[in-house]
Design a protein that fits this description.
Order of helices and strands: EHEEHE
Number of helices: 2
CATH architecture: 2-Layer Sandwich
Number of domains: 1
Radius of gyration: 14 Å
Shape: globular
Strand order of the largest sheet: 2-3-1-4
Strand content: 25-35%
Length: 97
């Protein structure tokens, strides 16, 4: 099992939910307000007067065979909306209850 953390501009929230639905993923946790800045090109998203935009993050646990399809959908979404920003990170889930 893998954990996928998707971090994105709040403007992409509905598209990320659609991405999960199209991937057959029902379970996820949404973090609606996440602050930060991308490591390469990202503008700060701090919810302040100077940097008013915010990010959201979605965490989901999936079977290994779904990871590539999710990452491909995230990549395509980023290519269409590169200036908005979306990233995905994957790691192994060793145990869960």
């Amino acid at each position: 099992m893998k954990a996928i953390l998707i971090v994105y501009n709040q403007a992409l929230t509905e598209k990320v939910e659609s991405l999960l639905n199209k991937s057959g993923i029902k379970g996820f946790t949404l973090f609606p307000s996440v602050m930060g800045r991308g490591s390469a090109e990202g503008e700060p998203r701090m919810g302040t007067h100077t940097w008013p935009e915010m990010n959201s993050a979605t965490l989901t646990m999936v079977n290994d065979d779904l990871v590539d399809a999710v990452l491909e959908r995230v990549k395509k979404l980023d290519e269409v909306n590169h200036e908005v920003g979306i990233r995905a990170f994957v790691w192994e889930v060793e145990k869960s209850i």
